[in-house]
UniProtKB/TrEMBL annotation:
This is Antibiotic biosynthesis monooxygenase. The keyword Transmembrane applies. It comes from the Bacteria. The keyword Oxidoreductase applies. The chain crosses the membrane at residues 127-146, 158-179. GO terms for molecular function: monooxygenase activity. InterPro entries: ABM_dom, ABM_predict, Dimeric_a/b-barrel. Residues 13-89 form the ABM domain. Keywords: Membrane, Monooxygenase, Oxidoreductase, Transmembrane, Transmembrane helix. It comes from Geomesophilobacter sediminis. PANTHER family: SLR1162 PROTEIN.
Amino acid sequence: MENVSQAKGAEPVAVLTLRTVKRGNEEKFEAALHDFISESLHSEGQLGVHVIRPPTGSDSREYGIVRRFISREARDNFYRSELFKKWEEKIAPMTEGSPVRQELTGLEAWFSLPGREATVTPPRWKMALATVVGVYPTSMLVPWLLQPLIGKLPPLLQAFFIAAGIVVILTWAVMPLLVKLLERWLLPREEA
């Protein structure tokens, strides 16, 4: 397995792949995805995988798979691998159309707008401003909420739990809500 320390000049890369699962194949796809992720995380150059499932109660059957690599070379090697080719063959009967794949940079992972093409993202300054609007109140709320639970822990552990709390709340609550509320502002009018 490759050392996770990066080669000089190499930067981590995140790739979002969108897949629409055929109706009635959701359980089979979930099982296949679980097995594939378990097997593929041992591939050289992997930094992790995050699965974005369709919202509960919605009619959407679109899955987002965000995979992080230590470099572009590791990304390319993975998508050319036999393991990945076998995965594509296995799920082809369970999915509709071709996958939509996009490289994510920085904040884009939080700003995929519902019902939009994966390639449509807001300008970076708008993403940064919206993120500040989400982070500011969250960074005040989380320490206040956690203090009674972690107040007697060493400062480094307190900082860890506060950071983890902020990330969890931003990822699953604050940013999805903000993106939905600010959708018309985030995208230029001709794209909205």
